[in-house]
Design goal:
Number of helices: 4
Largest sheet: 12 strands, antiparallel, barrel
Structural class: mainly beta
Order of helices and strands: EEEEEHHHEEEEEHEEE
Strand order of the largest sheet: 1-2-3-4-6-7-8-9-10-11-12-13
Radius of gyration: 21 Å
Shape: globular
Length: 278
């Protein structure tokens, strides 16, 4: 099985520490999956490509091929991350490794012992990094652009542009509980997109609580993720309200994903799907 740190997959749903390479690794992080949509009863092939430079410039691509209709849809994101600090999740994992090494015969050398004291983290307690990172630290702001091959959403007014300006805000995963067999994380992110043609602004927000159970069997890990998705949607207005300008409301939908190694079942935007990562 992969190391624990590697099980936080990249992309919009999970944490990824990024690449150590200066240039993009355009093929080293590609992930492919087969997905069955239980609502439309259609099979699709999904491709996800992710790369990040040491300067925190991120390139992300998601493709979706419908094997029933032959339709293909893709979304591309290019953005530059500005971090408030090194994410505390990295410090928690490093402290856990050092504490485990200290319990073994031979213990820690002087350099490792000094590093553990400097981290000042007890990886075995609840909220090992403390309350400060949960509220004040571990934020990332990322301006960028998105390109969506899909056409305008149903009911959308005005001209449509595939290219949009975007601002992303992300809260790095917070370790609520950490042990050799279990991790419990909390994460959040939000984004705002501006269509340059219609001047329409769309805001989305996502909250996730993730449970990782390692070595449930000798060859199986279990991941459970629950959360809430929110998105601004235009309200249907009459002539009087329309004269006052466009109005929007928050559409909310629950999110559930249960995964066992490469197999997962997901509920998102009211639709169940079954996925197998190749």
């Amino acid at each position: 099985m992969p190391r624990k740190e590697e099980q936080y997959s990249s992309g919009s749903e999970e944490y990824d520490a990024g690449s150590d390479d200066e240039d993009y690794d355009l093929f080293g992080s590609m992930k492919t999956s087969v997905c069955w949509d239980a609502h439309d009863k259609q099979l699709s092939v999904n491709v996800r490509q992710y790369a990040e430079s040491t300067h925190k410039v991120e390139l992300k691509y998601k493709g979706h091929l419908n094997t029933s209709t032959g339709g293909y849809h893709f979304l591309g994101v290019l953005r530059k991350h500005f971090l408030t600090n090194t994410p505390s999740i990295q410090s928690v994992f490093q402290a856990a490794r050092l504490q485990a090494a200290a319990a073994r015969p031979g213990g820690l050398n002087a350099e490792q012992a000094a590093e553990l004291r400097e981290l000042d983290i007890d990886a075995d307690r609840l909220l090992p990094a403390g309350l400060r990172p949960l509220v004040l630290r571990d934020w990332s702001v990322a301006p960028g652009v998105t390109y969506d091959s899909a056409g305008p959403a149903p009911g959308a007014a005005g001209p449509h542009s595939h290219l949009k300006y975007a601002l992303f805000v992300r809260k790095a995963p917070q370790v609520l509980l950490h042990s050799p067999r279990t991790d419990l994380l909390l994460s959040a992110k939000a984004s705002t997109e501006l269509c340059p043609k219609s001047k329409q602004v769309t805001t989305r927000a996502h909250l996730r609580l993730k449970l990782f159970k390692y070595a449930v069997t000798s060859k199986q890990d279990l991941r459970v993720c629950v959360g809430l998705d929110m998105e601004t949607v235009p309200l249907t207005t009459g002539s009087t309200a329309a004269a006052a300008g466009p109005r929007k409301s928050w559409a909310q939908s629950p999110y559930i994903k249960i995964s066992e190694n490469n197999t997962s079942v997901k509920l998102q935007q009211g639709r169940w799907s079954f996925m197998y990562e190749l």
